[in-house]
């Protein structure tokens, strides 16, 4: 007899954990089953060593506020990203107060966010960016300096033995954060399983078939015993990282036509040398290399994982045809369909700089990678730093009416017209904005239930449905309240 449930979550990452938690809070009577093909949750992109742990709020990431020749700097995207992160912070704060999440320092820590640039052109751009952002309520407290003595106080490793006469500048926001999305994911799933949600590890969904009654019949197997089985759900969420594309293609929904993904891996240099780690407490971002995707912007980061501090620098791009670290070597080939072949070819033709960038990254040995680090940290020593492999990112490629196909950075939800299935494609700033992404999904996929859910959503997220950046008093009040609960006051 086929098992019947209300919701199936595919993938054991932060996205499924967030959606599952929201649905459980809103509809505790619904039966939810989550499938994860590996032996534990948070083993791919949500794992703390597979990402940089940046609480993406556009405080330091220049790609959220690009300079367009002949046009004034527009803060709209940066403000939007910050607004979204505030919703995540509010949701996490509510879950801490409800006892769903553990002590905040187990998953989030105060870490200033900085931007550091060199050269006259980038210095001028950073100053213009500062002048625009300091007027935005959500960016209150942002600081700017071209003074080596000031920057040395903010982040000493940036200034030691730096060449004299070189133009440089930095901005700093003390209210930044470092987030362990692995710990956060584990805590959310721990609560869900204790509350009756069925988490099935070592189980892989192989196929999905739409039923006449509007539900979905999923075929899955136990990866240890290879036992095939089936389950029927009213709603399916595919939060399987790079494999979301493959499963959405198997579902047959027309909305996935024209989509493809381009896998990009990464490595970080890591040090746990206490003398080095003690001199740097910040996440410092800079400008991306020519042709580099936004996720490859170089940054020198404080990381706090399991209560232990370390530093990471990178990322350095790698290439694998796999869509996940534990994926298949055939992933990049098996995604090809008649409807997405042309858009993907157009992306390849239109992005030669990306190919050049990837090749140059692949040719770097350990010594060359430490040399790249020295643009940030002139005193870096080869022996202090080791390479670690980060997660695989599947960048979205899709149809475009004018260009034929475009490479899109960021995250995108693809859902069926009837809202019975949805999946998430793309990468950064995904995890940091998981809450607003899932709120949008709820509104689109559950139009009948959504109005009755709004009071509970407002209880979980006090500024739900409001814009903080238009109200300086509300912005200050909200950020102060969540900072106090989460223990991240600057």
UniProtKB/TrEMBL annotation:
One MF term in the entry's GO annotations: (S)-2-hydroxyglutarate dehydrogenase activity
EC category: oxidoreductase
Protein name: Probable malate:quinone oxidoreductase
Record's catalysed reaction(s): (S)-malate + a quinone = a quinol + oxaloacetate
EC identifiers of the protein: 1.1.5.4
Cofactor annotation: FAD
Family: Belongs to the MQO family.
The entry's keywords: FAD, Flavoprotein, Oxidoreductase, Tricarboxylic acid cycle
Listed GO biological process terms: tricarboxylic acid cycle
Domain of life: Bacteria
Encoding gene (name): mqo
Matching NCBIfam families: mal_quin_oxido, PRK05257.1-1, PRK05257.1-4, PRK05257.2-1, PRK05257.2-5, PRK05257.3-1, PRK05257.3-2, PRK13339.1
Pathway: Carbohydrate metabolism; tricarboxylic acid cycle; oxaloacetate from (S)-malate (quinone route): step 1/1
InterPro entries linked to this entry: FAD/NAD-bd_sf, MQO
């Amino acid at each position: 007899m086929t098992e019947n449930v209300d919701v199936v979550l595919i993938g054991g990452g932060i996205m499924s954990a967030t959606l599952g938690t929201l649905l459980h809070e809103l509809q505790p009577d619904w039966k939810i089953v989550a499938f994860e093909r590996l032996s534990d949750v948070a083993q791919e992109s949500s794992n703390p060593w597979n990402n940089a742990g940046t609480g993406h709020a556009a405080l330091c990431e220049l790609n959220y506020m690009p300079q367009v020749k002949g046009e004034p700097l527009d803060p709209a995207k940066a403000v939007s990203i910050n607004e979204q992160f505030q919703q995540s912070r509010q949701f996490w704060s509510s879950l801490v107060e409800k006892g769903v999440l553990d002590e905040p320092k187990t998953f989030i820590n105060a870490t200033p966010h900085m931007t550091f640039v060199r050269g006259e052109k980038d210095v001028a751009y950073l100053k213009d960016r500062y002048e625009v952002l300091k007027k935005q309520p959500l960016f209150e407290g942002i600081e700017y300096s071209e003074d080596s003595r000031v920057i040395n106080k903010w982040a000493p490793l940036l200034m030691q033995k730096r060449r004299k006469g070189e133009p440089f500048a930095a901005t700093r926001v003390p209210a930044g954060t470092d987030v362990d999305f692995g710990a956060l994911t584990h805590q959310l799933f721990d609560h869900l399983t204790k509350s009756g949600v069925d988490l099935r590890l070592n189980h892989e969904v192989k196929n999905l078939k739409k039923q006449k009654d509007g539900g979905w019949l999923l075929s899955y197997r136990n990866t240890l015993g290879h036992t095939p089985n089936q389950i029927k759900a009213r709603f399916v969420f595919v939060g399987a990282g790079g494999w979301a594309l493959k499963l959405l293609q198997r579902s047959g929904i027309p909305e996935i036509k024209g989509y493809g993904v381009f896998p990009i891996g990464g490595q970080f240099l890591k040090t746990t040398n206490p003398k080095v780690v003690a001199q740097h407490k910040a996440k410092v971002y800079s400008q991306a290399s020519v042709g580099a995707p936004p996720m490859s912007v170089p940054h020198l980061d404080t990381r706090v994982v399991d209560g232990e501090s370390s530093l990471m620098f990178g990322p350095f791009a790698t290439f694998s045809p796999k869509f996940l670290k534990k994926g298949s070597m055939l992933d990049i080939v098996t995604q090809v369909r008649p409807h997405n072949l042309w858009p993907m070819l157009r992306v390849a033709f239109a992005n030669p700089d990306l190919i050049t960038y990837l090749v140059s990254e692949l040719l770097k040995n350990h010594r060359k990678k430490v040399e790249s680090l020295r643009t940030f940290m002139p005193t870096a020593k080869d022996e202090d730093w080791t390479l670690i492999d980060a997660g695989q990112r599947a960048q979205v490629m899709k149809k475009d009416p004018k260009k034929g196909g475009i490479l899109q950075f960021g995250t995108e939800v693809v859902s069926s017209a009837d809202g019975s299935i949805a999946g998430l494609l793309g990468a950064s700033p995904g995890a940091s904005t998981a809450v607003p992404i899932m709120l949008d999904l709820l509104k689109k996929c559950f139009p009948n239930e959504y109005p009755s859910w709004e009071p509970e959503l407002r209880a979980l997220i006090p500024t739900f449905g409001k814009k903080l950046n238009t109200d300086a008093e509300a912005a200050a009040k909200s950020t102060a309240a969540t900072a106090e609960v989460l223990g991240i006051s600057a």
